[in-house]
Give the backbone structure.
Amino acid sequence: MALLTGRTEPGPPVPTTVAGATFVAIVVAVATHAESLPVAIWALAFWHYGLYVLAYTFGAVSAPVFRRDAVLAKAASLATLATAYIGASPDPWSMIAVVAGLSLNAWAARVLGAERTYYGAELADLPALRVTRLPYSAIAHPMLIGNVIAYTGLLLDPAFRRDWWPLALAHVGFNVGLLMMELRVRPRRGYRRAGPSRAAPLFVPLTLALAVGAGAGAAASVGQWWPLGPIAGSLLGASLFGHATVLYAGYVWPSAQRGTGPADRTEDGS
């Protein structure tokens, strides 16, 4: 990697959105072939949390790219989760809690605006802003609180809780983790994107990741750690490792000239 300087040297962008869409398509195809909904749910459940952490921590991806990637990853996660939840014929109290949590999240996002919802202050260096309208005037971080309410509401349904309680608890834990990150971690701001160095091309680590992932996927299939045959297991393993490598390259490799001003908080500017 080249040394960081104040000079911007645009390089070829890492196609994280294309990689994300390809990854979702492969996972859905493998899960459909295996007739295994859990494969799709677990494989797609948590990628958006990783994107949030990488974008917030490194601040080296452009805001529009992050917004597209995050929307795609979260949509895939919620779509597969909704399939399992609806299949469990949820009871009314569970549905009320889920709708209430999602509504709070959507309300807060609309008040905040799309740019600030997706880390506009950290990635696009938007000026500090303290939002005083509801729901921010009544509760801090309503989007993350809304998520916690919604995912906890899933557990109110007995059938869903019996089969999927680890998944719901994991979502709750990740949202609490994001809240702690926004409260305790000082984000990096004021990036200038420079792209990956020619000395460390994406082809080399991606090829290695695909090979290791394929081997791990085949081994998991032989060991019966997931309900897939060796070919499907290799394909899923390669896609998991490859997607992670592309995301890391797109969100961490770009060089950045960090701003020195104080960083404001994502949701309420506090």
Observations:
- The CA atoms of residues 110 and 117 lie 9 Å apart.
- The radius of gyration is 20 Å.
- DSSP finds eleven helices and no strands in the chain.
